[in-house]
Amino acid sequence: MTSGVVLVATFVLLGSLFTVAVDATTEARRSAEPRRAQLIELITERHGEIDRLEEDVALVRRQLRTAESQLSRHAHEAAADRRRVRLLSGLVPLEGPGVRVVLTDSDLATTDPARSRRFRILDIDLQLVTNALWASGAEAVAINGRRLVTLTSIRGAGRTITVNFRPIAPPYEVIAIGAEMEAFRDTGVAERLENWSHLFGFGFGVTEERGLHVPAYSGSTRLVAARTVVEVEE
Amino acid sequence: MTEGSSQRFERGTGRMRRLARVGSGRLRGVGVLVLAALAVGVLLALWLRPTVSPDQGRYVAVVFLVTLDAALGGLRAHLERTFSERFFVIAFSSNTLFAVGLVWIGDRIGVDLLIAVAVVLGLRIFRNLGSVQRTYARGRR
Question: Which of A1, A2, A8 is the mutation pick for testing B, counting most B CBs within 10 A?
Fold first, then answer.
């Protein structure tokens, strides 16, 4: 009879074990389910985030392109400005039609040192000539290869004349691109020099030429006292 | 064999009728007792509701297989009148310990030995089931 009891107990155990095992498996499956759903949700969420970030990237790229094109335009404008400034300030060599004025000291010798000044070309003469040339339309002027710019000085130092603080020797050749010969000849300075050339024996030749060459200013452009009012490059 | 067993598990009432037709009072009583014991076990588990984590669930499944094997073996021995209480208890407990220990070691070394236990016990279960069926068939004759 005990053998039957043992067997019955075994079957009771079997039934309960079966139920518990089924329970545990169901439970495991059910607990795995929300995690799956959570993962799916997370993936969808992250995909959305990626899409959003990609849009951001595209937007920033567009902004970058706009800024780059703006920058290149500004750089272009700045370069053009720079070129214009260099051109106007005489830092580039120029070529073109204009007037060539050649001045030479008088051949008439004099022994009187006090009167010798009258037979030489003086700094004031060159100043007057260049001013007259500017007045008759000159855009670029050079004396003996020395470019005239806003900082230029024409000074006499003893018997020599300095242009841009460098001595020059006669004959003095003034080249003025853009000047018109007729206009220059009509100036008082030209008339006076013409007269004096007859009176004192100066050499004074004025010719109109094409393809004149004026070199660039090679001196220092550093300003000592002056300051720019508008911001300019260099 | 499989056809007969599936037919038997398909409809409980059919099975009962068939068991009733066996004629032998002893065999009929055993069948009713087995079913009643199973029902009691299921109800007991449903009533107690033991909480088992998924990890422990594997061990419950192993114990279930060992118990199924032992129950069918015991039933077979009982029907063949060779049931020994001592042998049954020793075999059942040692099988349980060994199977659970095997699965535990398998989990430690990363090999799913639950499969091995299930295959071996499955073979034994079918063999015992076959013997029980034969006994019933003999009793019917």
Answer: A8
